[in-house]
Design a protein that fits this description.
With 130 residues, this protein is an all-alpha fold. It contains 5 helices and no strands.
């Protein structure tokens, strides 16, 4: 399995965990579980982003493991639509939900749907020849 595929598989696993935790959070009306779902969702977005960057010709050892580095790489290598999704997911799942705890259940459901779309679009991308 290629590096891109490994990151995509991790992204999908984390997405499924985020959805599971979201369902538990909604059922129990538990905002702590909701934050956990957002954390898993953000980790899923990071893994999908690594797959995107690898598909765009960035080597695994060149991937930035910091927020600033990922933002720079996304801006440099992603198509505009995917760049906008990345920043929306970062702002909503990571900042607003996880840190600020300001998103409600309906908003998180929308963002998880956005995350699913983001992963699917990255999966559809053709790999750049190295």
């Amino acid at each position: 399995m290629s590096e891109e595929q490994l990151h995509l598989e991790d992204a999908k696993k984390l997405y499924r965990k985020a959805v599971e935790e979201f369902e538990i959070a909604r059922e129990k009306n538990d905002r702590v579980f909701l934050c956990d779902a957002c954390a898993k969702g953000w980790l899923s977005a990071i893994e999908a982003t690594y797959a995107l960057l690898l598909k765009r010709g960035v080597k695994e050892e060149e991937l930035h493991r910091t927020d600033w580095g990922r933002r720079y790489m996304v801006h440099r290598y992603a198509e505009k639509e995917l760049e906008l999704y990345y920043f929306s997911l970062r702002d909503n799942l990571h900042i607003e939900c996880y840190y600020e705890r300001s998103l409600d259940f309906d908003e998180v459901q929308i963002r998880l749907n956005d995350l699913k779309y983001y992963i699917e679009k990255i999966e559809e991308l053709e790999e750049v020849r190295r």
